[in-house]
Automatic annotation (TrEMBL):
Protein name: O-phospho-L-seryl-tRNA:Cys-tRNA synthase
SUPFAM superfamilies for the chain: PLP-dependent transferases (SSF53383)
Transmembrane regions: none
Similarity remark: Belongs to the SepCysS family.
GO molecular function: Sep-tRNA:Cys-tRNA synthase activity
Cofactor: pyridoxal 5'-phosphate
Catalytic activity as recorded in UniProt: O-phospho-L-seryl-tRNA(Cys) + hydrogen sulfide + H(+) = L-cysteinyl-tRNA(Cys) + phosphate
NCBIfam families, per the entry: PRK09331.1 (NF006810), SepCysS (TIGR02539)
Gene Ontology terms: biological process: translation
Enzyme class: transferase
Binding site for pyridoxal 5'-phosphate: 146-147, 251, 274-276
Length: 454
């Protein structure tokens, strides 16, 4: 690790220890012993900052709480891990995490009706309204990840034995959400390009009706799937769902927060997004948005009354189990939001960088792209069986040699040991980083005797 990165973390930790002194003291200020401890800590901070500026010194902190390693991959390397790229926190989100990390920090100024989406300080209520507008819907709630958005919808619409239409590339959490509600999934098959079409969706709906005597109760399809990140016929699928009068859930785990999304224009009844995957937010976080029509059902408030106490909690939303995201998780999403809104307008630039890198990778003889190409997304599945894997067959480190080579060049996030089919994501990388990344793969190929087209 660079000593400057090391000293940056040590300075941050030392300042947190200074902060701890304020938390332990009386509101009236330090007593003499606390003042002495404060001055000692400030001297330590100054020494660390001197080392940071000069690039000198030795590592003093290697663990958090004695057992947790420092996570420095975002500072030290180019991270192409497929699910981490768009969840990388903004600087403002990291600041919010420092300030609002305490468990119930969002509740400092909570007043009646005691519900998360009604809190005005910090501006959580306004944020909910902005979220709905951001995805082109009427109402929005923050949830602990996209999976909890799926669960809220299936919990509302699906009864035991009901059928839900999903993609043959659907994420496992979609399956679990349906199973948890007692339903059954039926998968829409892919065409020869690994795309889910509107026509195939209609055929699946007809099959379900013929076999069960009932139409499916929900169509739940990803815009871009997690396996290939191919773009599916999402508008056509939305039209089909509405032709059959079936509600449509748009899975935007890989779109909300990275590209423009307008749920109503797509024909969605529900939009689900992932905060920690695509909105530069702390995990677990996500968003569930819906049209006005579904508010009374999907966000119904409790009507239950205690038999002894006669207590009622009528303002609490059942599918949300009351309040959802609290503390640093929610505030990180809020702090990143201005950047997230702005970056969706530059989606085409991100896709261009993705295509530049994949184009360079394809210059290495034997390399293939399994996702649709040219790319429409920054997440891509590649096949290097005919290139890097040919080296792995005789290398003493087998497939791990590629990880070694990339790591030595400051590149992380590829599947360690994988040299056949694997995924990567270039989202958020600058032009110079994408060029560096492409150059690195070509250098590794040439070093090990693979032909590279100039």
């Amino acid at each position: 690790m660079s000593i400057r990165i090391q000293k940056t973390f040590e300075a941050l930790f030392a300042l947190e220890e200074v902060r701890g002194l304020f938390r332990e003291s009386l509101p009236t200020g330090f007593d003499p012993a606390e003042e002495a401890a404060f001055r000692q800590k400030i001297a330590e901070v100054k020494a660390i900052l001197a080392d940071l500026e000069a690039g000198t010194g030795t590592p003093k902190v290697t663990k958090i709480a004695g057992s947790i390693d420092l996570r420095t991959r975002e500072e030290e390397a180019i991270n192409i891990q497929p699910i981490q790229a768009a969840g990388r926190l903004t600087t403002e989100a990291r600041k919010a995490l420092i300030s609002y990390g305490d468990g119930y920090s969002t509740c400092d100024a909570c007043r009646k009706p005691f519900r998360l989406d009604k809190i005005s300080k910090p501006g959580i209520a306004e944020f909910h309204a902005d979220l709905a507008k951001f995805v082109g819907m009427d109402h929005a709630r923050v949830v602990p990840g996209a999976r909890r958005g799926f669960q809220a919808v299936t919990g509302t619409l699906v009864n035991k034995g009901d059928t839900v239409i999903v993609s043959a590339l659907a994420h496992y959490t979609e399956f679990l959400a349906v199973e948890n509600a007692g339903g059954v999934v039926r998968e829409v098959p892919l065409n020869d390009k690994n795309i889910v079409t509107g026509e195939a969706t209609a055929q699946k709906i007809e099959e379900v009706k013929a076999e069960t005597g009932k139409f499916p109760v929900l169509v739940m399809i990803d815009h871009f799937d997690y396996q290939f990140a191919n773009e599916h016929e999402i508008k056509e699928i939305g039209k089909v769902a509405h032709q059959y009068d079936i509600p449509f859930l748009y899975n935007g785990a890989y779109t909300v927060g990275v590209m423009p999304v307008n749920g109503k224009a797509i024909g969605a009844d529900f939009v689900v997004g992932s905060g920690h995957k695509s909105m530069a937010s702390v995990a677990p976080s996500g968003v569930l948005a819906m049209t006005e029509e579904w508010l009374p059902k999907a966000l119904r408030t409790t009507s239950m009354v205690g038999d002894l106490t006669k207590r009622k909690f009528g303002i609490k939303e059942v599918e949300m189990l009351g309040c959802t995201l609290m503390g640093g998780t929610l505030l990180s999403m809020m702090a990143s939001f201005p950047t997230v809104k702005a970056r969706t307008l530059k989606w085409e630039e991100e896709v261009q960088r993705s295509n530049y890198f994949i184009g360079r990778l394809l210059k290495i003889a034997g390399s293939r792209v399994l996702s649709e190409y040219p790319r429409k997304h920054t997440l891509t599945k590649v096949d290097t069986t005919g290139s890097f894997d040919t080296v792995a067959q005789t290398h003493k480190r087998r497939g791990f040699y590629l990880s070694d080579e990339l790591s030595s060049r400051g590149i992380v996030g590829e599947f360690a040991g994988a040299t056949r089919t694997w995924k990567l994501n270039t989202y958020g990388l600058s032009d110079k980083k994408v060029r560096y990344l492409a150059d690195a793969f070509c250098e590794v190929a040439e070093k090990h005797g693979l032909a590279v087209e100039k």
